[in-house]
């Protein structure tokens, strides 16, 4: 190190203020919550997995599902598990970012639509969401308004998102706290039918990102052949994760605001002929010996138990990017480690904002969560599609 000559110090003097300002800017931006990507997972309060048992070191973001919208008061309410969730998961990973998810698949769309259709109820909802998030130490809020079917619902959602984001900006500037993150879980494609379309321009402008629910395309009650419910590709032109992501990008939501959602569960079919056991093999509804009697869903942890107990055959199909397993007349379409790793590489190679799993309580010994986390960190290997 050399000592600066007095004259060179004098020459530097006019620039010192600029240098100090530049250093302060770097300092300031480091103080903000930096989000570079999402290695995310939803924790469902009714999954049977205690929040304290979550290996939060395998995630950058964890969503607590779900807080409820009270249709009488239009306020958001949380269970005690969601109220303590940020503190609980920070014990193993102090830097994991936490979001409070509101709604979920079991809530009727009309409940959200009613709230979102009036200025006063929107205000009540938004204010209570911010109060709750701050009271529990969440970093953000996630809207899980599902089953929308009408253009008027999409218009109300757009208004809600605009006002919500403005309120978050106001709250941050008046308190000096980091702005709360705002996200939503959305359908695999923004275009639900010719008239009904998610407000993509409003979403791109107001949300930090969306979690694209690229699953539940088929179930055993609605399909006479075995299928992957969450294929990344479908050469026959059916719904797929990649076609949905493409539709969101073409619809105006930049890839940097898209997070690929994948399932930690599958669907159990009953085969018509145990010797015809590939994809698109004849099937006769739900196999209720393993599948949930409602839709035929099976958690990954149960699929692993089935594979071990029945010595089932496991196949990975790289054309569709799905796994399936079978034994006798039981056939399950699901994502195992190969499908998960390939989907994560796809998200990374396509420069999406990350991935999110629904839901982590269905994992088996953190196998899929760890596979996803490592695949994102590892060098990507799948061609950009
Ligand atoms: C995946 O399954 C389809 C449908 O059964 C089949 O046509 C295709 O060859 C399979 N791909 C691979 C790589 O096995």
From TrEMBL:
InterPro entries listed in its UniProt record: Chitinase_II/V-like_cat, Chitinase_insertion_sf, GH, Glyco_hydro18_cat, Glyco_hydro_18_chit_AS, Glycosyl_Hydrlase_18
One of the GO BP terms on file: carbohydrate metabolic process
Molecular function terms, GO-annotated: chitin binding; chitinase activity
Domain GH18: start-end pairs: 37-379
Signal sequence residues: 1-33
Keywords: Glycoprotein, Glycosidase, Hydrolase, Signal
Protein family membership: Belongs to the glycosyl hydrolase 18 family. Chitinase class V subfamily.
Protein name from the UniProt record: GH18 domain-containing protein
